[in-house]
Amino acid sequence: MNKYVSGLYLTLIMIGLLFLAACGTADDATADSNAEGQAEENAEKPVLRVGTEATFAPFEFLEKGEIVGFDADLLDAVLTEAGYEYEYENVGWDPMMASLQNKDMDFGAAAITINDDRKQTYDFSVPYFKSTHMIVFNEGAGFTSAKDLEGIKIGVQNGTTGESAAEKVVGEKNSNILKYDSTAVAFLALKNGDVDAVVTDNVVADEYVEKNPDANVEAITDDETFSAEYYGFMFPKGSELVAEVDAALTTVIENGTYAKIYKEWFGAEPNTDVLLEAAE
Q1: pLDDT tens digits, one per residue of 88-142
Q2: Which of 62, 128, 176, 248 has the greatest number of beta carbons closer than 10 A?
Q3: Is 97 left (phi over 0), alpha (psi -120 to 50) or beta?
Q4: What distance in Å separates the CA atoms of residue 146 and residue 224, rounded to the nearest whole number?
Q5: Are 55 and 184 in contact (CB under 8 A)?
Q6: 3-class secondary structure, 260
Q7: CA-CA distance, 112 to 120, in Å (whole number)?
Q8: pTM beyond cutoff 0.90
């Protein structure tokens, strides 16, 4: 190889290396720019205030002062997917409802049933959980159906669909329906003998019976009387967050994250097809 060819060869190699270096720099710059853009976009998003009533295990309850439960884990997955930071606040059921109506909070995550009455005042996400109601009562009472609620004192959480379910059986404004600030207090009333039964959501009823063997209670459902219902995140009317949360929630359901959280809390595989169909 003569000196001319050798020099030309080295020159071409140097040009090639410079070209590759330039390409690498451009790619790196693009990646850095995209990352910075995403970080700026997330930084511009507000920190959301999310309300709950943390006495509704296993959906939301306090453990060492921290709100934990199925809803807490699902909320975190959804808002992480949507790119939001948030504060999850245990404000109580009625204050949460009032704060959402007054637009003092961004939304509520508290095993909230989607129904037509609430839709008049609030907006909802797509459904994320299917539920029904159960009757919890002292062992030996011999209840077999919802008809056994007639003529006895019934404990419910005020303003919930458990209250509506009881009213469906014994009538609205029935003096035998005793309303409490939380389902936990209604269970305490059952323990103290202030009521004969509590009507609440099936998963919460099962959780209470399982975790409180010394309470000597049991639970039944009545599919002919208690119809299925769906939980959703609740928003102030006209909230612009609904579309973003819906998209993130749907992604979490479709990519398997929802199933993982569900199995951790309930030990079973969820029927996500039912949720996706209900969202259509």
Answers
A1: 999 999 999 999 999 999 999 999 999 999 999 999 999 999 999 999 999 999 9
A2: 128
A3: alpha
A4: 9
A5: yes
A6: helix
A7: 15
A8: no
